[in-house]
C-alpha cells in the first residue's frame, strides 16, 4: 500500500464576478500606483458580492470540476469532501455542509455516506486537507476525495492591507488513478504559535453599549422596568427585544477583517517557510536545484519572489561558482552576520541582480499571473498559483515545489510531480475564461459593498 501514488486528478475554479482596478484604488487612497502595480504585482482585486459566500463559491468550484472532468463521474467513489477555509459561516456547523442538499438535488443522489469537514489554519487549511486526503486515498486506492479551498479576503477600508483583498475557490479531485500531479510522502513542516494575523472574537458589554447608543441620541439613562424575577432590567424601547433580551451580559462580534501586523506577519512567513524548506531538504531525496517551479501562497502577487531570496542564495548560489561569478562584487561583499542591517542591504542587492531575476522569471513569475488578476484568495491562493504556473510557464514543467504558509503560524514544503502530460493551453483557457466576463466596479461602489 505504501507504494501507491495519489494526487490531483482534475480541478475546478470559481472567481468572483466583480473587481476593482488597483490603479483606481491607489489614486483614491493617495498611493503612488506603481507602488502597488510594479512593487507588489497587483492589477485587479476581486470583490465578492453578497451572494458569493464561502459555500456558494465552494459549490461553484465543484460544479466547474465536474463539468470539465474527463472521466465518468461516480458519487459513490467520493468518500470525503473537505473544505479548507478561514471564512467559515458558523461556529459549529461546517461550512461545507451548507452545500450538501444543493449537490444532492442537482445530481439526484445521496451524499449521506460522505464525510464532510472544514479545516482551519488560516491560509494553509486546505493544504492540511489535501495531505489528509492524500493519505486516505493511498490506503483506499478505489476511493476519491474532494478538497476545496474557498475564502474571502477582507480588510478594513483605508488599512495597510486593503489592496491585498480578494476571494474565490479552487476544488481538487484527489485519487490514486489518472492523477495529473502526484505527491510523495515527504513534507517539511514548521509551526510556531504567533499572533501575526488573527480574527479575534470581540466582546462588548450590552448595558454600556446601550447607554452609549442612548447618549448619542441625547438620552442620559437607561429606562428600567421590573422583570419576572422582580429584578430591574434594562430595556431599550423600540429596539429588537430578541437581541437586547438575550441572557448574556455581553455581545460578541466575530469580524471578517483581521487583526494583523504586516511587518511581523511577513517575518513569520519567511521564517516559517525557510525552516520548513530546511526540514524538507533533510527528509526528501529531491535536489531542490532541479525543481521547475516554486509555488507559494501569495497574499499578493510578488510575495513569493520577495521572500525567496535567502532560499535562493542557500540552495542555488552557495555552491555554484558560475552564479557567484555572475554576481561578481555583490557576492564578494557578502556580510558574515545574517541578522544585520548590512546583510539585509546585501539581500536587496541580490534581489535586483541578473541571476536572481532570471531565476524568478523561470521558476516563480508564471505562478503570479492569476494572483495579479484576482488578489488574495487565502486558502485557494497556493492552488491558483499552481494552475497559473502550469498555464503560463514557457518551460516543460515536471517538478513543482510547494511552499505553503498559514498565519498563526505554520508552513509546509512538499513536492508535486506532473505525471500526465497536461495541455497548458487548455488550463490557460479555463483560467482566462474565469476572468473574462467580470464586471469592473468603481471604488465608490466597492466601498458600499464592503460595508454590507
List the helices and strands and how they pair.
Layout lengths: L5 E9 L3 E4 H7 L4 H5 L6 E3 L7 H15 L9 E7 L15 H8 L7 E5 L5 H15 L4 E10 L12 E10 L5 E11 L5 E2 L2 E5 H10 L7 E4 L5 E4 L5 H4 L5 E5 L4 E2 L1 H22 L9 E4 L6 H5 L1 H9 L3 H7 L1 H4 L8 H11 L2 H10 L1 H10 L6 H12 L6 E8 L3 E9 L5 H13 L2 E2 L2 H8 L2
Parallel strand pairs: 2-18, 4-5, 4-6, 15-16
Antiparallel strand pairs: 1-7, 1-8, 2-3, 6-7, 8-17, 9-14, 10-13, 11-12, 16-17
Helix pairs in contact: 15-16, 16-17
Brief summary of the model shown:
The protein has 18 helices and 18 strands.
Low-confidence stretches: none
Largest sheet: 9 strands, mixed
- Strand elements, count: 18
Kindly provide the radius of gyration, computed on alpha-carbon positions and rounded to a whole number of angstroms: 24 Å
Strand content: 15-25%
Alpha plus pi helix count: 18
| CATH superfamily membership of the largest domain | Thiolase/Chalcone synthase
Q: What overall form do the CA principal axes indicate?
A: globular
- Provide the CATH topology of the largest domain: Peroxisomal Thiolase, Chain A, domain 1
Distance between the termini: 51 Å
Query: Can you give the helix content as a percent range?
Result: 25-40%
Query: How many structural domains in the coordinates?
Result: 2
Mean pLDDT over the residues: 91
Numbering strands along the chain, what is their spatial order in the largest sheet? 5-4-6-7-1-8-17-16-15
Overall CATH architecture of the largest domain = 3-Layer(aba) Sandwich
Helix/strand class: alpha+beta
What is the CATH class of the largest domain?
A: Alpha Beta
Amino acid at each position: 500500500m505504501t507504494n501507491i501514488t495519489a494526487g490531483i486528478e482534475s480541478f475546478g475554479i470559481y472567481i468572483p464576478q466583480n473587481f476593482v482596478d488597483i490603479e483606481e484604488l491607489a489614486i483614491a487612497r493617495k498611493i503612488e500606483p506603481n507602488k502597488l502595480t510594479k512593487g507588489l504585482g497587483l492589477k485587479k482585486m476581486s470583490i465578492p458580492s453578497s451572494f458569493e459566500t464561502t459555500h456558494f463559491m465552494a459549490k461553484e468550484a465543484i460544479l466547474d470540476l465536474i463539468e470539465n472532468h474527463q472521466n465518468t463521474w461516480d458519487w459513490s467513489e467520493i468518500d470525503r469532501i473537505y473544505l479548507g477555509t478561514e471564512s467559515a459561516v458558523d461556529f459549529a456547523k461546517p461550512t461545507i455542509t451548507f452545500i450538501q442538499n444543493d449537490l444532492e438535488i442537482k445530481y439526484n443522489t445521496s451524499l449521506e455516506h460522505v464525510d464532510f469537514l472544514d479545516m482551519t489554519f488560516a491560509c494553509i487549511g486546505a493544504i492540511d486537507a489535501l495531505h489528509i486526503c492524500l493519505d486516505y486515498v493511498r490506503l483506499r486506492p478505489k476511493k476519491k476525495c474532494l478538497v476545496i479551498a474557498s475564502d474571502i479576503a477582507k480588510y478594513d477600508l483605508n488599512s495597510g492591507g486593503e489592496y491585498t483583498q480578494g476571494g474565490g475557490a479552487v476544488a481538487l479531485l484527489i485519487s490514486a488513478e489518472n492523477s495529473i500531479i502526484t505527491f510523495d510522502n515527504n513534507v517539511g513542516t514548521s509551526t510556531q504559535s504567533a499572533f501575526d494575523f488573527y480574527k479575534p472574537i470581540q466582546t462588548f458589554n450590552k448595558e454600556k453599549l446601550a447607554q452609549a447608543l442612548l447618549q448619542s441620541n441625547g438620552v442620559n439613562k437607561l429606562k428600567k422596568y421590573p422583570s419576572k424575577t422582580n429584578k430591574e432590567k434594562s430595556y431599550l424601547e423600540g429596539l429588537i427585544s430578541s437581541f437586547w433580551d438575550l441572557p448574556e451580559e455581553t455581545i460578541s462580534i466575530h469580524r471578517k477583517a483581521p487583526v494583523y501586523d504586516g511587518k511581523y506577519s511577513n517575518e513569520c512567513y519567511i521564517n516559517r517557510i525557510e525552516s520548513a524548506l530546511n526540514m524538507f531538504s533533510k527528509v526528501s531525496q529531491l535536489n531542490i536545484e532541479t525543481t521547475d517551479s516554486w509555488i507559494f501562497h501569495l497574499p499578493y502577487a510578488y510575495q513569493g519572489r520577495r521572500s525567496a531570496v535567502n532560499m535562493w542564495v542557500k540552495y542555488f548560489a552557495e555552491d555554484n561558482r558560475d552564479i557567484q561569478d555572475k554576481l561578481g562584487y555583490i557576492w564578494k561583499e557578502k556580510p558574515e552576520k545574517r541578522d544585520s542591517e548590512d546583510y539585509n542591504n546585501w539581500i536587496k542587492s541580490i534581489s535586483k541582480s541578473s541571476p536572481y531575476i532570471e531565476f524568478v522569471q523561470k521558476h516563480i513569475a508564471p505562478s503570479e499571473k492569476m494572483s495579479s488578476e484576482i488578489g488574495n484568495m487565502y486558502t485557494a491562493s497556493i492552488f491558483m498559483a499552481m494552475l497559473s504556473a502550469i498555464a503560463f510557464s514557457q518551460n516543460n514543467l515536471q517538478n513543482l515545489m510547494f511552499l505553503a504558509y498559514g498565519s498563526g503560524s505554520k508552513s509546509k514544503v512538499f513536492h508535486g510531480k506532473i505525471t500526465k502530460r497536461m495541455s497548458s493551453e487548455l488550463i490557460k483557457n479555463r483560467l482566462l475564461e474565469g476572468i473574462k466576463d467580470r464586471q469592473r466596479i468603481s471604488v465608490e461602489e466597492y466601498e458600499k459593498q464592503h460595508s454590507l
